[in-house]
Amino acid sequence: MTTNTPLRIGTRGSPLALAQTHETRDRLAAAWPELAAPGAIEIVVTTTTGDAVQDRPLSEIGGKGLFTKELDDAMADGRIDLAVHSMKDVATILPDGIVLPCMLPREDVRDAFLSPAAAHWSDLPKGAVIGTASLRRGAQILHRRPDLVVVNFRGNVQTRLRKLAEGEVAATLLAMAGLRRLGLDRHGTALPVEDMLPAVGQGAIGITCRADDVRAQALLAPLNDSVTWTRVAAERAFLALLDGSCRTPIAALAELDGTDLTLRGLVVSPDGSRLHAASRRGSAADAEEMGRDAAREVQAAAGPGFFDGIRT
User: Fold this and answer.
1) Active-site choice (81, 89, 111, 213)
2) CB within 8 A of 187, min separation 6: which ones?
3) What is the CATH number of domain 234-311?
4) What single string gives the DSSP state of each residue in 133-201?
5) What residue segments make up the domains of the chain, in order of their start?
6) At the topology level of CATH, where does 7-104+204-224 sit?
7) Cα separation of 153 and 131, whole Å?
8) Do domains 7-104+204-224 and 111-190 have the same CATH topology?
9) How distant, in Å, are the alpha carbons of 63, 161, 217, 253, 294 from that of 299?
10) Which one has a higher pLDDT value, 222 or 68?
11) In whole angstroms, what is the distance from residue 193 CA to residue 172 CA?
């Protein structure tokens, strides 16, 4: 693995993205002592479309590539060797020539509820405003509390915490994983997954590289966490069959107990009025087929017009 060429890791520039990239760097250095040397790893910061456009909902400015496209382009052009992503942002179909050989051990999958006025969204008064950039979160809340008002709430973790403190909204939701990685988990209360099913891949960090980059794939091999890989594979299979995008509120969570895998998934209309869910239990060896089978059940229950109506 010895080479004089630095290993270039591409990342978004938000504090959370950098924290995830630093974790990746540290794990690489621990696995490969030569990468602990000064200058052996270079971090390359790239601004993505999702970072640059902050005045519109994610559903209005594109699909799953909002936080990955520019990093994919940099990799294809040879400007970076690896890219670090939150798995919930990674499309189920990767660009040609790019592979996903590694996921790090998964953090807390739950969503966090943050509010100076209530401990849970069920405690908020009628008409209270909740800010979130996630259709998944907003739709699940509206399914249970249609009397609340959900508004678009963009920005990195620190920006959203500031907006909340300034009273722009009564409450917001963030991923517990992000708060924990930033040392900010004291600000939020973790919601049970029964109250808020997480996004596909939430809490997991994925690392991509070029399909023909033998060195990069060899360096990443010892970092891959098989438990995370199996769980996220089931969730992404559920998402892939449903053709999920930023316009389709889809949630899924796979949990592994030895070789036994449990999967829960749902799709909900953006206004929360219609929700369809499915669950599966089986062998971890069948993770992806379990995801696809659960998705087929949801499709059948929702009917042919459900997803078309969401995408328009």
Assistant:
1) 89
2) 112, 114, 161, 179
3) 3.30.160.40
4) S-HHHHHHHHHH-TTSEEE---S-HHHHHHHHHTTSSSEEEEEHHHHHHTT-GGG-EEPPTTTSPPPTT
5) 7-104+204-224, 111-190, 234-311
6) D-Maltodextrin-Binding Protein; domain 2 (3.40.190)
7) 5
8) yes
9) 20, 37, 36, 17, 9
10) 222
11) 16
2, 34 Cβ separation under 8 angstroms: yes
Using CB atoms within 10 Å of the CB of residue 221, give its burial: 0 to 12 exposed, 13 to 18 middle, 19+ buried: exposed
Extended strands (E) in 26-116: 41-45, 82-86, 98-103, 111-114
Tens of pLDDT, residues 41-71: 999 998 766 554 555 555 554 555 667 889 9
- Is position 225 annotated as part of the catalytic site? no
CATH 3.40.190.10 fits 111-190, yes or no: yes
Model's pTM, two decimal places? 0.91
Identify the CA nearest to 104 among candidates 22, 6, 1: 22
| Average pLDDT value for the chain | 91
SS3 (DSSP) at 41: strand
The tokens describing 242, both together, are: 């449903």
Measured from the Cβ of residue 152, the count of other Cβ atoms closer than 10 Å reads 16
The per-residue pLDDT for range 236-295, each reduced to its tens digit, is 999 999 975 556 799 999 999 999 999 999 999 999 999 999 999 999 999 999 999 999
Cα 227 to chain centroid, rounded? 17
